[in-house]
Design a protein that fits this description.
The protein is mostly helical. The chain has 10 helices and no strands.
Length: about 200
């Protein structure tokens, strides 16, 4: 039986914390997208801890909007906020593991949950950016072939690190195409219930 992980805070409290530190609707939406992506993968890899995986995804960029000019300190500020809110060391560690490429002193992804967060977090942003360019504005008719074209075009969504995505696939032992396909499937699993990908 899998070890039960506690975030120390519930989903509603986590969402309120995200909204307190992020005023841009895009950042809230990104947190929600990564939350649902993590929940999707948790159903396969760690169903006992689906809630924990989701909260990690929701709060992974908690401090980004307020401190985006200090990438090396990304998630260090978040750790202080989370600790004050009752977040557990497990929650803080999992969140910090996705920024070890910015700061090698932070924990590196070890558990499958941390590796999936590292691999999919930037990728969901690339998929979202590609989807809003499509006539349908929907992820439901998006595919790996279309994603590969956008991935190769370095000018498209230039802020998305292709190296991080490649490194994430490597850490998981997945082919890049497999990571692409599974992340698209994850986003398709919750997109019908929301208007995430409808352009404003």
């Amino acid at each position: 039986m899998a070890e039960k992980l506690s975030a120390g805070i519930g989903r509603d409290e986590a969402h309120a914390l995200l909204a307190e530190h992020n005023k841009d609707p895009f950042h809230i939406e990104h947190g929600e997208t990564v939350e649902q992506t993590m929940r999707y993968f948790a159903r396969e890899y760690d169903p006992e801890n689906k809630e924990f995986w989701g909260i990690v995804g929701l709060l992974h960029d908690l401090d980004w909007e307020e401190h985006d000019d200090e990438p090396a300190k990304h998630t260090i500020y978040a750790a202080e906020i989370l600790e004050a809110a009752g977040g557990t060391p497990e929650l803080i560690r999992a969140i910090q593991s996705h920024t070890s490429d910015f700061n090698p002193e932070l924990p590196h992804p070890e558990h499958v949950m941390e590796k999936i967060l590292f691999a999919t977090e930037e990728l969901t942003g690339l998929i979202g950016a590609a989807v809003v360019m499509r006539p349908s504005k929907s992820v439901m008719d998006f595919n790996v072939k279309s994603l590969k074209k956008k991935f190769k075009d370095k000018r498209f969504a230039a802020g998305v690190s292709r190296d991080v995505i490649r490194s994430g696939a490597e850490q998981l032992g997945w082919e890049l195409d497999d990571l692409f396909a599974r992340t698209i499937e994850a986003m398709q699993s919750f997109a019908p219930d929301r208007d995430t990908f409808v352009a404003e």
